[in-house]
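Example record

One chain of 1029 residues, shown exactly as stored in the release files.
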Amino acid sequence: MSGAGLNANQRKILETDGSLFISAGAGTGKTHAIVEKFFALIRDPGGAMVSAIRVDPLSIAAITFTKKAAGEMKERIIRRLETLADQPNTSAEAERMLNAMPFVWIDTIHGFCSRILREFSIEMDLDPSFEVLNEYLKERKIRGIVLRELDREIGERKPDTKTELQAYPLRNLLKQFRLDGLIDLFIQALSRKRFDVWDIFAPGEGESHPADDVAMAFGTLFNKMLKAYETECARDNAVDFEALLLYTLRLLEEHETVRDHLADRFRAIIVDEFQDTNVLQKRILDSFARTGKTTLIYVGDGKQSIYRFNGAEIGVFNLTREECDDTRYITLEENYRSHEKLIDFYNRFFPKVFGTQSDRYGIAYEPLKAGETEEAGRFTEYAGRVRLLPKAQDFSGECFNICAYITHLIKTEHWRPKDFAVLLRTLTAVDTMTGVFEKYGLPYYQVGSANFYRRLEILSLLSLVRALYNPSDEYALTQLLSSYLSPFAEEEILEMRKRDRRFLYTGLKGYVEEEGETHPQYRQFLQRIEGLRARLSLRSIGELLREAIREFDYDLYLASLPNGGKAWLNVKKLLEIADGFTGNASTREFLEQIAQESVIKEEEATLESEADDVVRLMTIHKAKGLQFPIVILPNLGFYQNPPSPSFLTDWENRAIFFSADSEAEEEDRADSESKPVRDSEPAKNYNELKNKEKAREYEEKKRLLYVAMTRAKEEITLSFSEKPKKSEKKPSLSKRGFLPLLAEGGLVIPGTNWTPTDQSEYGDIVSLVPFDLEKVLSTGQTANEEEQLSEPADFIPETAFPLEDAPYQKYLSPSLLTSAEATRPEEAYRLLRKYEEKKVDDLLPELFKLSVGAPGYSEEVGTLVHKVLELYAEKDLSMVTRATVERLNRAFGYPASVVESAEKKIRLVADHPLFQVLRNAQPCFSEKPVRKLRGRHILSGTIDKLYFLEGKWRILDFKASRQNPLFIEKYRFQMRFYLYLVKELLRPAPETATLLFLEERSMLDVALDSGFEEELDRRIAEYEKAFSQ
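Predicted structure tokens for this chain:
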């Protein structure tokens, strides 16, 4: 077995046979270890791939927390197999396993269970082609059933006699809950707590129901409603995500032959992120463990269990650990992410917070060690510090301090905006922070600010796919008829519904048949739908979406929208996601993943790439699994009192209590939520169980702080404010967000401020910010900024405004503003096809670019020449050969004549003095996108070369044409436009921009004049007028 690149404990994972429990701290390389373990399981003890036994990779299952994690794990395994395929002694087996990789069992728990249920659908009386319900449809079905069943109970079964009244199930419930409270009670039970309640009221052999009358009445009605819900889902050939797990558990527990068959199939199951497992998921895994045939390998970090709101139960993690033999318990403790000083801080701070002894719902801190690596220059000279921002009066003050601090570090220590991540517990007050960032021009991106799959341009395509896949999906068809793809108005959709109240599709056909003569677009819409449905089984989901985009001219429609460029990039992202699903089942699997996005609240999809130079704003949950050079934790005193649930369940003791049973709640004592939970004694009432819940929430708060701090590679910055409202008494320390934890760790003196550095045990690591934050933003300069004005920056920000999807914003480029003609749809369509695979921020401006290149020169030649100069202008151009140009042309696929012309142009200017200048520049940026907010427009451009030489910033732009008088003014405007974009971003601002005309080797210098802004506004107004016509 290979142990290359592994530390001692990682090697122990490979060498230990049988079941394992692996506790992997933050940044300890657990994914690398999991991949190595996967290979260890398919190799013989000698280290070679098994050829005689021919181990089937389908016999190893890996369960991950997200689809993204599953994809990354598969990708790592494929890369390893491709390496092995190049080695003579392993090539045959590696090739065989590569061919099997599309079918390996690496998926989320929901994906794992879905495959099992489709294979054994007969045993569970399911159709193997069942559809997975999204959250919206599930909630709608559940609400309808609850209302219907309660109406039946109240209306049809009202007791007439005292004897009947005593036996009447609703009697006890209605005594304690109002009707609206009862409705919410059952919706919550069926939607969020289904397994917990089902497990209580479906006891096994020798067990009994709870004896409480209210609980019995509740359980009786719950079972009726659950049966009605399952019947309705079966009628619609659908299951939801909770049912996927529950049906799988029932399959394994009720069908011994199926369980044994699956246990024989899976030699091992690796469970990643095990700390986020719930009770139901663990019961499924236990079914395999009890057979004694399947090896279970649990991998997780109890200190990173932060998904209680999704049902994750740390008690499951701790119980499993207690059941594990010490010889099979391995701790990964070498951290390869954070600087050694930060690791030292973790090891001194978190033992005070977590303690050193685990209990049922708490976790002990296990110290980390700095991992040894050969990677040089991993950290900067500033690494290894914890900074404390001044205590602010309110959150707005905190935001000002954070903005000033980031600005100062960018200017004085040459950090880039993308080196900073601001992690919040919730996004409740994020608008305050974004407002401050906007005011002072700090670029940011709010991760997770919008649900990718709920954007209108994405919903339009998803509703089309759902309607094609399931013609009886009335909701999908209604959504499609209301989407960007539809020519129908809302009142017309209502008219279709009136024509056939059961089947909207029938109403659609009837309406089109009647109105199609006068409205040919209606008939065309229906023909497109029916044509795509006829070809559905012949297309992968990616092919289907591309065909739909062509059929509906969807790209042209998006181009006409105010924010069309961004919308088109969203569609391209959807196509990339769809391309990950292949084969006959691709459409179904694709729709399942989209449905799952609403189950996993922290959605994975974002539009902006990691290359964007912006400060990240995100929740701590969103940051899990990521890392950043500098992590800023604001609003540490934030506290939001959660609402009391209508009922609570005790999963260990199979008990349920209702809030209506509880006595008037007592005033919270300062230490009520911080009491440790040392046992699992059954709660006697609702209040007692609620106190246990508070203690569990407090334990998770510790874990949330741990996750937040351990995202940092080089620095942690902390901030808090305290200003209770005058009408409220000051909250107890236990309710002030993370402050009680910081007090336990010795960073905060309760009720005052940060612990003074000279009194702190962390004085060698922790320090207050050593400069005046007020002066940073009030003067616009730092103290030593004057000395730096002639120094080259290590970065140039692309923008001075937030990269958000504000609906009013429109991207405007110089080529768009200098276009005098109307947009030609055929030209726009051709350009969209050209940029099909190209990711550019200013796609929309390019889409409307009417003058494509200068007269007499091929656009393709110009594009290829620009690509060569982008990569080689700072090098010796005489070394560029035909082979070089041909290699770059692979990305474009232009004909040989284009390659020949491009090479000639490069040779023509290879010895031009400007290229010698570029070789001496430091730094020199190529194809640098720059954007600037002006009113409600985004001014956008891409500068060919932006470089720093002899104390000055300079701009250079290449033109493959001659100095044609017809286009000189257009080019001059473009250069002034670039100078205007960068004048507030660069110090000193460039004085001129240079045009280099390759055909005649001539140059033209352009300066920014005082009348440019007036001309710019005039051109924008002319464009707006033309665009609106």
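Notes: The chain has 41 helices and 25 strands.
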